């Protein structure tokens, strides 16, 4: 006989509707709970296109992708998801 109890979800859960606080762009944030239980808050920051190069950077120790290979075509499969789950 099957139980009606739901199995505990393991791994990271992305439920943007439950954890996203919709406010003005400068007040939007999303909370992620790490495996350790520590909660991390990401805040939405709008960077004008003209400022991206001077105000942003890539840490090669944690994100070692070849930045020249990141083109609109190579990112086509994930571009639509970025607005829902990444800050």
Describe the protein's architecture and organization.
This protein has helices spanning 16-19, 52-55, 79-85, and strands spanning 20-21, 29-33, 39-43. Strand 1 (20-21) and strand 2 (29-33) form a beta hairpin. It is extended, with a radius of gyration of 17 Å. The chain has a domain at 11-48. Residues 16-21 have low confidence and may be disordered. It is α+β, with helices and mostly antiparallel strands and 87 residues long.
Features of this protein?
alpha+beta, three-stranded antiparallel sheet, 87 residues, 17% helix, single chain
Q: Please give the largest β-sheet.
A: 3 strands, antiparallel
Mean pLDDT: 75
Structural class: alpha+beta
Radius of gyration: 17 Å
CA-CA gap between termini: 44 Å
Indicate the overall shape.
Answer: extended
Helical amount: 10-25%
- The strand line-up of the biggest sheet is 1-2-3
Helices and strands, in N-to-C order? Answer: HEEEHH
Proportion of beta-strand residues: 5-15%
Would you report the number of β strands?
Answer: 3
Catalogue the unreliable spans. Answer: 16-21
SS field, number of helical segments: 3
Biased composition (Polar residues): 12-22
Keywords: DNA-binding
Protein name: Chromosome partitioning protein ParB
GO molecular function: DNA binding
In short:
The chain is α+β, with helices and mostly antiparallel strands and 87 residues long. It contains three helices and three strands; from the N terminus they run αβββαα.
Layout of SSEs?
Blueprint: H1 16-19, E1 20-21, E2 29-33, E3 39-43, H2 52-55, H3 79-85
Antiparallel strand pairs: 1-2, 2-3
Organism: Salmonella enterica (Salmonella choleraesuis)
Region (Disordered): 1-22
Protein name: Chromosome partitioning protein ParB
